[in-house]
Amino acid sequence: QKEVEQNSGPLSVPEGAIASLNCTYSDRGSQSFFWYRQYSGKSPELIMFIYSNGDKEDGRFTAQLNKASQYVSLLIRDSQPSDSATYLCAVDTGGFKTIFGAGTRLFVKA
Amino acid sequence: DAGITQSPRYKITETGRQVTLMCHQTWSHSYMFWYRQDLGHGLRLIYYSAAADITDKGEVPDGYVVSRSKTENFPLTLESATRSQTSVYFCASSDSGSGYEQFFGPGTRLTVL
What we know:
The complex is a heterodimer of chains A (110) and B (113).
Chain A: E1 4-6, E2 11-14, E3 19-25, E4 32-38, E5 45-50, E6 54-58, E7 61-66, E8 71-76, E9 85-92, E10 98-100, E11 104-109
Parallel strand pairs in A: 2-11
Antiparallel strand pairs in A: 1-3, 3-8, 4-5, 4-9, 6-7, 7-8, 9-10, 9-11
Chain B: E1 4-7, E2 10-13, E3 19-25, E4 31-38, E5 42-51, E6 54-57, E7 64-66, E8 76-78, E9 87-94, E10 103-104, E11 108-112
Parallel strand pairs in B: 2-11
Antiparallel strand pairs in B: 1-3, 3-8, 4-5, 4-9, 5-6, 7-8, 9-10, 9-11
C-alpha cells in the first residue's frame, strides 16, 4: 500500500513567522510531488509542485524534496492569517495514481 | 461557465437509493478523476478516466459506477447508497494523467441516512 504521511496538526504559528510543513512517502519510484492548499469548505488548489531534489521557490513558498529520505516539505515565509488552511501533500506514483496525504491544518495567529 | 462544475452541491439520500453526482468541465481536459474526502483519510481516488469511454478503478471503487460518453462529463453513480458513502466528493480534471496539476470542482457533500 503506497502511503503519504503528514502530521495532522494543527500547526500554529504567529503572523510573520515561517511555517514548516512536512510529508513523507513510501513509494521510492515516485516522480512528482505537489502541495495543495484547501480552505475550510472549499476545494483543493495547487500552490507548488516539485520534481527534482533540492529547493524550489515561488514567492513566499519554498518546496523542498529529498528523494533519498523520501521527504517533501513546504516552507511558508512571512506567514499571514490568510495562509490558515489545510495543506495537502500529493505524490504521483505513476499510472494516473496520485496519492494524497490527509493534510496538515495550519493556523496563523494575528 | 468556464472551469469545472459539480452538481448537486448538497444531497441527502436514504440507504439503498441510487444517486448520481454530476461533473462537467469546459477545458477539454483528457483526464478526469473522482475523489472522496473523509476526515482523517484525505482524498481517496474512486475512479479516473483518461479519455471518453476509458475509465479505470482507483483506490476505493466498490459501490460506485462511472461513465464517460463525452469528454466534458464524468458522472459518478452510487448504485445502492450506504451510510459509509457519506462523504464530500470532489471531481477533478487534468491536461495529463501523471505529474500534472489537477483542477478540482467545488465538491458535493453527500449524506446517506
